[in-house]
Amino acid sequence: MSSPEINIRLATADDVALLLRFIRELAVFERAPDAVVATEADLLHHGFGPNPEFEAILAFLDGEPAGCALFHTRFSTWLGRPGLYLEDLYVAESARGRGVGKRLMARLAAIAVEREFYHRLGMRHHGEWLRYGADETALVQLAKEDRADD
User: Fold this and answer.
1) Tens of pLDDT, residues 34-54
2) Ramachandran category for residue 129: left, alpha or beta (phi over 0 → left; psi -120 to 50 → alpha)
3) Is 114 among the domain residues?
4) How would DSSP label each residue in 72-131?
5) Structural domain span for residue 32
6) How many CA atoms lie within 13 Å of 134's alpha carbon, on the beta-carbon side?
7) Which end of the chain is more exposed for a tag (fewer CB within 10 A), N or C?
8) Does 1 reside within a domain?
9) How far apart are CA 89 and CA 103, in angstroms?
10) pLDDT tens track for 28-37
11) Please, how many CA atoms are within 13 Å of residue 29, restricted to the half-sphere of its CB?
């Protein structure tokens, strides 16, 4: 049996409907289906306008939409440097357990390494929600996974 083909790419303005679909599916998964009030227009304006507030990457499994990671930059006052903040990571139910989430994280790590973010941050849990940071060594190692599968 051949392994599935997973492709990851940056989202574009043409992807706002797909991004909103994944955001709504994530809300259902999180047992908050009515919490999403964002619209395609909101995503288009805030993600793909003149001053984007977020970026997203999309995963495709054998050509079909399989998941996304939505992220934005943040600034650590304690470290005195910027980093990436992963807002949402979502893998469609039909694609779970097939390596899509790992590939999304690997691509995000590659983006972080390319932009020289997350220097000297240690991996740790932050409060009730699962929020993590990664140090440069961990990101470089994970970024290698992104290139290994291409």
Assistant:
1) 999 999 999 999 999 999 999
2) beta
3) yes
4) EEEEETTTTEEEEEEEEEEE-GGGTTTTHHHHHHHHHHHHHHHTT--TTPPP-B-SSS--
5) 6-148
6) 21
7) N
8) no
9) 11
10) 999 999 999 9
11) 13
Name residue, tokens 């984007």.
Answer: 52
- The stretches of the chain forming alpha helices (DSSP H) are 16-29, 40-48, 100-114, 136-148
Contact 125, 134 (CB under 8 A): no
At 27, is the pLDDT very low, low, confident or very high (cuts 50, 70, 90)? Answer: very high
21 occurs within a structural domain? yes
Residue 29 lies in a domain: yes
CATH number at residue 135: 3.40.630.30
Number of domains in the chain: 1
Which residue bears the tokens 């903040």? 85
